[in-house]
Amino acid sequence: MNLLDYVADRWDRLSLQAWLHVSEVVQSTLIAAVIGVLIGVAVYRSPIGSAVATALASTILTIPSFALLGLLIPVFGLGALPTVIALVLYALLPITRNTIVGLAGVDPAVTDAAKGIGMSRTAVLTRVELRLAWPAILAGMRVSTQMLMGIAVIAAYAKGPGLGSEVFSGLTRAGSANATNQALAGTLGVVILALLLEGVYFLIARFTISRGIRG
Amino acid sequence: MSSTTEIQGFSTESGSRRADRVRLFAQPVAVVVIVGLVLVWAFTRSNDSIEAESIQAGVLLDKTWEHVLITLVVAAIVVGIGVPLGMVLTRSWARPVAPLFIAIANIGQAAPALGVLVLFFLWTEWDGLWAAALPIAFYSLLPVLRNTIVGIQSVDPALVDAGKGIGMSSSGVLFRIEVPLAVPLILAGLRTSLVLAVGTATLAFFVNGGGLGELVDTGYKLNRVSVLVVGAVLAVGLALLVDWVGALLEEYLGPKGLT
Fold first, then answer.
1. CA distance B64 to B152
2. Residue A58 — pLDDT band, cuts 50, 70, 90?
3. I want to staple A136 with a disulfide (CB 3.0 to 4.6 A). Which of A102, B63, B73, B222 is the partner?
């Protein structure tokens, strides 16, 4: 059976797993975006706070995903919970770091002008600074999403949902019929979904970055 | 002006020099303390016979060495292929094919590491060190390749002209001007590649390549949390140490005149 026949034959299961894969990655990215932006907003005015936040987040990213997953299993058991926790932790660095960079890069003259026309501190943050930092934050989310697509495959080891289970059963069934097709379908599926998400980010950037700062 | 730059791809660099300096000191200390505490805990608790089979100095050293070996082999392949390939692709006669190689390396990194590893195993039916090292090298090649190309391309053309003007041959310009100026970026790429390699090497046991991931798997399959934790913590410690070595290389091997 060649790959196309295989995919056509197992389309129901594969499409469900593809959907679960994308859904866990997108949800984890969104959770990480909320936490990351909050951390960024909290520390960007303090050089020491920024250094500590980025140092911690980059240390987390250095941890091998399989080891982190292993450590999460005894605490949170198997399934979606340890998977989402691991994915959110990995997504934090690019988002936090880009939020800090984006916020720190806002021209002080612009924020002064906003204060000068009577905007409150919150209004300056939400209506001026965060909007100017948005392209950087979005770029961080894009990098995180791409990373998580690959890490989510490993998470299938902890019985997390998604296409990783195809790769794993291809491995355990090595030598039997369709083992390679199964692993290939899982791997290529992740690559194709990652490319699709890349396209989605392009569209989001097109429609959400204010016209004045669009490059 | 801020000292940080936006992140555009996988990189563990925090991007701020202050954060880097914190990590340069804090990281090795944290590794020694945490790994030390976990080892003391693992060796002093009362292990049953299954745990005792894994938690003994010989086994832990073996697995750590296998892990280090994979990382070293991958680093050698990545430097041996990435840097020369990057140098060739920046020559004017090779410009048209450069995007092709970058695209291949990009796909290599976009593909899930575990998928690449498993497919290589299924196709070649090899196992052991090379079955793990080759796909991991393919997976971690991109940062060094890309940074070599970008590093050489961003050398000020005036410097290249000046080199030619004083009568340097084109290889003289490459090795005495372009490459030395690109070294900081190449080292940054190497650090990223090393971190990818040491992280992916935890998956090597899936293709019988050994490494610390095997302890995690043993602990999980036999339901012995202590073995799992020891394996995972050693893997984390090793990854942080490798990243730290990468940071040291960046700090001390870069040309002094540039920073």
1. 36
2. confident
3. A102
- State the pLDDT at residue A186: 94
**Distance in Å, alpha carbon of B93 to nearest chain A alpha carbon:** 31
Which of residues 145 through 184 in chain A touch B, CB cutoff 8 A? Answer: 146-147, 149-150, 153-154, 164, 167, 170-171, 174, 179-180, 183-184
Three-state secondary-structure class, residue A46: coil
Domain span including residue B153: 17-42+57-258
pTM score of the predicted model: 0.90
CB A139 within 8 A of CB A195: no
* Per-state percent for chain A, helix, strand, coil, to nearest 5: 85, 0, 15
- Name the DSSP letter for residue B177: I
- Residue B119, in any domain of the structure: yes
How many domains does the structure of chain B reveal?
1
Query: What pLDDT score was predicted for residue B2?
Result: 32
If you ran DSSP here, which 8-state letter would residue B257 be given? G
ipTM of the complex, rounded to two decimals: 0.88
Output the furthest CA–CA distance in chain B (Å, rounded). Answer: 74
Please report the sign of the dihedral spanned by the C-alpha atoms of residue A159, residue A165, residue A168, residue A174. positive
Q: How far is A145 from chain B (nearest CA, A)?
A: 11
Which range, B92-106, B122-136, B245-259, has the best average confidence (pLDDT)?
B122-136
